[in-house]
Amino acid sequence: MAAMLAALEEIGPGIADLGAEVTFAGFMGEETAQHGSRHFAERYAGQYDFAVVGEPTGCAAVHTHKGSWWLRLHTEGKAVHGSTPERGVNAVTLMLPVVAALDAGFRERLAAPEFRHGVLGDSTINIGMIRGGTRTNIVPDHCTVWLDIRFTPGVHRYGVRRLLEEFLELSGYAGVVRIESDPVCAPLETDAGHPLVVKLAAAGCGTAGATWFCDALWLAEIGGIPSVAAGPGDIAQAHTADEWISVAALEEGVGFYRRFLESV
Description:
By secondary structure, the chain is an alpha/beta fold. It has two domains: 2-65 and 189-263, Zn peptidases (Aminopeptidase), CATH 3.40.630.10; 67-181, Alpha-Beta Plaits, CATH 3.30.70. It is built from eight helices and nine strands. The strands form three sheets. The chain has a four-stranded antiparallel sheet. It has a three-stranded mixed sheet with strand order 7-2-8. Strands 1-9 form a two-stranded parallel ribbon.
């Protein structure tokens, strides 16, 4: 954001002479649910020719990124006193083979050659959290595992939920777990040959893909606006205890955005 605003400030009165009208918009909720970009895309659908979402991409134009599906799997058991576990049904032990199957067989299914993407590679699954039971001396009657699936356009076209449900059915776990789903966020697929993508790539460090998800998807999917993510910095420096960007990278970003705007 700072690099974008600084680029506009440097251009100054020359903004009026650019080959396109430029709008700067700041979106709330970028990290979770993306309410800001969704609202903007709904309100201004079809009114913009191109969008650049500021993300730390090393000044490459990220024209494609993976989709994202967050979900929970639940198992239900029967709680009894921990001294007589044979009288109950342990929801945690019901979940353990499911987790093992997801970490092995389903991970392999996601990485099947037919789903592999030339830029994004393979789809992935992260088993992020697991929680079950209430006390050490009580057989747990519930267990929940939190999953984060990042998927390629090929998996999206097949259906990421369909893929999981088929796996659970074939593995014998369809009747063991219950799926609780957040909305599925599709992958971004903006044409790398789009004239403005080409200009943006030429102003910076070419084109790239990303494993993460960002606001560009909603601008493209809901708003019909060809969108990419691009900006200074490295994603490895984000989401850390001491998130930072170097002054040199910030200055590089200012020049990057300015070169792009002046080339339009």
